[in-house]
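User: Hello, can you help with two protein structures?

Assistant: Certainly.
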Amino acid sequence: MKTAKLAAAVTGIVAIGALLLSGCSSQPSTGGASQGPSASGSPRPTVHLNVGYISTSINGVGLTEVANHLDLWKQAGVDVNLIPFTDGPTQVQAMAAGSLDIGYVGGGATWMAMTGQAVIVAPSEATLGDAIIASAKSGAKTIADLKGLRVGVAKGGSGELILDLALQKAGLTPDDITEVPLTAPAVVTAFVAGQIDVAATYSPLSDQILQSAPDAVTIATDKDFPDSQFIGAWVASTQAMSQHPDAVERFLEVYAQANDYRIANPTDSVNWASAASGAPADQLQSQVNTLKWWPSSQIAQDNASGLTAQRFTNLQNLFISVGRMTQDQEKPIADWLNTDLYNQAEQTVQASK
């Protein structure tokens, strides 16, 4: 039973995205003061980048705050404009508008790159933090009990992906539920207020729901779908990739170093992210407990061996199987995944040590 409010809710999401974009600046440019020595010690011209991140995600703000505290942007010669977002799809929309160069998207939103809207330049994490949570009042205890219930979900993200998988597993379709499209934070608010029966969302929002409604029932998580690995990613706009790949590579130099630091020092990443975003440290830590980060050298090895490409191809096939993408939208992997820039960036980082 598709709700009649679907179109209005989606329009609201787009409007929120437009407000977020109003403060964004232009595409990357080269020039200005020379900063950031190269591997040979020679200065490189500063590049400008608009970088988006999810303000409540340890994979987003946790990474950018490590880069801030270690002064990695300056070391790489990047004049960075950091822009907070509430989700991944809105960042891809900002890229289409020419207002964002690079951003972080969770595994559920990587389909947008796979349909040609952005280019994946680095895997971020494998996650087990997505969940479908039912209110005690709804009486739902299994996936099959979703039938006829009001399910709040942020469209295009990993919450919608786990909902698609759950419905498919139970032999249901989206028409069997009343889908209520909301922004990711609004899913939490609506659930706690009793405006929806079920929330399909991701950590830390799932943790916020369970803290606010301890009698709620978790009826499905990523662990219920072991053959479906959700992989978040850092993506670049097609414009940045075609016009300023050198600037994207500078970002990846920052990413490779910040990634290794957060793996070795997760408490620093959590505390810095909490101080910057206001997100409770315990909720950010709960995210760390439900994901896997790959060391930067391992990412380079997986890129070279083809394992990175295989992981994202498997995810693309999953999107097609649950109807997030159609086979007509499927594009050659070379159109939406670039591993060469990351490997070049990792080589630069290693050579500078």
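That covers the first. Now for the second protein you mentioned:
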Amino acid sequence: MLKGFRNSWWVHLPGIIAIAAMVAAMMMRRPWPSRAPVHFDFRFATDRWGSPREAIVFPFLAATSLMAGMLMSAIWSRREEGRKRFNLVLPLVTLPVGTVAGLHLWYWWNLPTLARTGTAPAAWVWLGISGAIIVTCCLLLESFRKAIPD
């Protein structure tokens, strides 16, 4: 096991909570409609319709990004050599987790409206706020993390 992994995994706790919220949102919105928007353009106008089951991939994408971030944080903290260095890769790996979680939560929160009309308001707001919350929480936890001694 990486020496830094035991010391730095909890910095990613907001990302783990976000992934759990993504799965919970999917389970709470059952039964799913048979047809809903599954692809959107940059303005979140519907490009393609299909089964909402296609959105199941988002928690897996977020989890993969989170695992890569946890590994990168462990490698970063191994090089501290007793002197704490701020983890510069942390915002780069937690922002995608936060924005994917925001998109996923927006989708499932607005699924009945999306299934009827194909549009729902404030998608960029959900992405921005959730990304900012996840990054801010991870950075706060990083500020409390202790350096790994030699």
